[in-house]
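Minutes, project check-in
Item: structure for the 186-residue chain
Input as provided by the requester:
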Amino acid sequence: MSLGLKWFEEAANRKEKRDAEGVPISEAVSCLSAYDTSVWPVATEMAAWIYNNWTMAQVYELPELSRNTIFQIIKEKPFVFNERSNGEHKSATSDNNPEEKRWVDWIIEALENLGGKAQLENIYAEIERIHPLNLSRHWHATVRNTIESYSSDSYNYRDTRPDIFYSVAGIGNGFWGLRQTPTDSK
């Protein structure tokens, strides 16, 4: 079996769906199991998405074989994990197409609406209010992971990303803020 051109052309649609809905463990396991087959790009695509969107805690929910596959892909194909942006985030308010917004943009917009800092529960409620698309059952975890991966206060921070959020009351308290609110930059 091999992947047709159509599979490669639909990569952006798959990523958009995963970004919006998250990825259940079963789907991740299924895709990662394709690594040692002729359809190995299915596994590398999934590994890259997991790398950019899941916390280590989520990765460790995978069976050991699947975790090892991710680590093997990271070792053998590091080019798959390069950030696809220049490290700067677009302003959520300047992007009027909700289908093109990234999770970080929704979180920034929610925090701006909430005065620059808020408890996670309030951030979730604001995202539910402003997000016009259907949210997956895993979206709360995606929000937490996104905040952590864009905050140098977190162990999950990726220094290839801008340091956008800070922990207001210390890690583990679920109280986050924007490092620079729009009024701070004027």
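Outcome recorded: The chain is about 45% helix and 5% strand.
No further action items on this chain.
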